[in-house]
Task: structure prediction
Amino acid sequence: VPVLNILSMAKTGIYSYKDAMLNPGFRKMTSLLSYEREKIFAKFDAVSFKDFADDVKLPPEMQLMFTTFSRAFFAEPQYISMAELIKSFHSYFLSNDLGLLYDVLNDDFEDTLWKPAKNYLGKYKSTISLDSKITSFKKEGNQFIINDERFDYAIIASDVKGTKNIIQNSDYFRKEHPDFYNQMTNLKQSQRYSVLRIWIDKDIRQGVPFFIFTDALKILDSVTIYHRMEKSSEEWVKKNGGGIFELHSYAVPDDFPHDEIRNQFLKEYEEYFPEIKGYKVKYEYLQVKDDFTAFHTNLYKTRPTAKTQVENLFLAGDWVKLENPAMLMEAATTSALYAANLIFNKEGLKEETILSVPLRGLLA
Ligand SMILES: Cc1cc2nc3c(=O)[nH]c(=O)nc-3n(C[C@H](O)[C@H](O)[C@H](O)COP(=O)(O)OP(=O)(O)OC[C@H]3O[C@@H](n4cnc5c(N)ncnc54)[C@H](O)[C@@H]3O)c2cc1C
Result:
């Protein structure tokens, strides 16, 4: 797969063989093919993608591809750690036949994911408490007391903002585990990201994929055509006409005004899809958030692992440091498997297999 993917990038004009042979900076780019966790983080965690691109004089097509890629990890090129980017490039492009394409659920998450998951867990007598914000967290003897309930083990799997909040509100961690308290309360959030979903009275051209990466003019990173992806959205459009679209910005520039996000989304959307001109928005839903983890420079050293210094307390989420290269949802799932396995191991139970792309790059 890696060799074929690299060759196909040349074929689509992302780089040229001539560049590869002649450009001295280009040779430094072999680091992109040399992922090996400790070595790459030691060498590149302090370097941003922007600095790397300037240094190696990255061709414009590759700059564009990696800028989009960097933003997909919720960071603009001047912030993202080059080590995280090499890890991601290794994990997605050099180990996966389809690069950033993957299978997706074909209907609303409630029906396709959450209900089946709840039913499955119900068979094992588990309890799921929704709308139950963790407001207090401490340990007494061998047990955790979380919102007045007692537990033998705990896995904190909230997003980075929520996790900081949980730890910050806990006198137990502050007094009994000050190092852990400091490590966790210093976790860094990324820039703001935003999602605008619109229900409109017109549709865009046929023949395009239902998920499209756009080169953000200012903020628009991708457009998802919901009615060509999800059954319930398709039904809505059959009944009402028009289309349902979701516009994403994974990294809203720090100085971009909050009040202008909605209109800027629509402006860029119209620019990429001029056939939509004159459309009317029937419904819309805007979210602007800042709870995603930062994959910025110099964060690797202090990034926490699934195992913590607090006995029987574990961490899971896309912000947890892993032994194998994985990002986003895959990292969240993998870290959860690590955390669960640590508990299974203590209880003498069979551990789950953790699948991974190769741990080392082609030229490592
Ligand atoms: C717009 C967008 C598009 C994305 N697209 C992709 C994609 O195409 N592919 C991909 O792999 N990933 C994608 N991601 C990233 C993906 O959503 C995350 O990596 C993934 O959801 C992380 O899972 P998680 O379980 O670690 O955390 P989350 O899904 O963030 O869940 C954390 C939960 O913790 C809860 N919480 C916070 N504080 C508390 C508290 N005090 N008490 C109780 N609960 C709390 C939150 O409410 C939340 O439900 C995307 C993200 C966004 C925002």
Q: What stands out?
A: The longest strand covers residues 243-252. Residues 133-134, 157-159, 162, 165-166, 193, 195, 248, 317-318, 328-330, 332 surround flavin-adenine dinucleotide (CB under 6 Å).
